[in-house]
Design goal:
The protein is α+β, with helices and mostly antiparallel strands. The protein has four helices and two strands; from the N terminus they run αααββα. It has one domain (7-127). Helix 1 crosses helix 4 (90-127). The two termini are 16 Å apart.
Length: 128
């Protein structure tokens, strides 16, 4: 059995062991992740592509003096970089706004759970 000397110790014990409080805290932390995820929809998309191949050829006959006859090989490389950014994407801005509202709501629910725990602990402490 755990004993506590004062109201603060009782509250700290309740805070670390109350399932409702822990659930509210985890929900708040999960909701906070919605903002970076929604913000990602507002950022540019970047892609990089590199393709490297080796070409082997065997020229048996050529009328072009710059292409010698015989076997040769040479590398062939293709590089590309693309960046795209919509000028304005209304749905992305709506998702970002909704994420901020959801975080505020989750924070409020978390604060309410904290206050309820404080009240329950204080009532129980002073009744004992």
């Amino acid at each position: 059995m755990v004993s506590a000397e004062n109201l603060l110790e009782v509250y700290e014990l309740a805070l670390s062991n109350d399932a409702t409080m822990k659930a509210a805290q985890f929900e708040f932390e999960a909701a906070r992740e919605a903002i970076p995820q929604a913000r990602a929809g507002l950022l540019p998309d970047i892609s990089i592509r590199l393709q490297r191949t080796k070409v082997n050829q065997d020229v048996r006959a050529s009328e072009n003096p710059t292409i010698p006859e015989g076997k040769s090989s040479f590398p062939n490389e293709n590089h590309s970089l693309s960046l795209s950014q919509p000028i304005f994407d209304y749905s992305s801005w709506v998702r970002f706004s909704q994420a901020k509202i959801s975080v505020k709501q989750a924070e409020t629910e978390f604060r309410v759970a904290q206050q309820e725990l404080i009240m329950n602990v204080a009532e129980t402490y002073f009744k004992a």
